[in-house]
Design brief:
Length: about 80
């Protein structure tokens, strides 16, 4: 379960691979309202498309670390 002020990593959708802060949770549907880092405004995100970030400075959860290991990177 998420709660207000949780940091999340969005895994799919328009804001895929972005981080955000939960600002509200709809009581009926569970949809998260988030402030996406670097994007103006607030967005509604399905909680199934998010994983929590439990960070202390640069230490992230193993789940996020494993996910990032499989994201392709490109160089120019």
């Amino acid at each position: 379960m998420f709660k207000v002020d949780d940091r999340v990593f969005i895994t799919r959708g328009l804001h895929q691979n972005e981080t955000a802060v939960v600002t509200a949770i709809d009581d009926w549907s569970g949809v998260l309202t988030v402030n996406v880092d670097g994007w103006p405004g607030k967005y509604n995100i399905n909680p199934a498309a998010c994983i929590p970030i439990m960070a202390t400075h640069t230490v992230v959860t193993d789940e996020l670390d494993d996910l990032l290991d499989h994201i392709p990177t490109w160089t120019h």
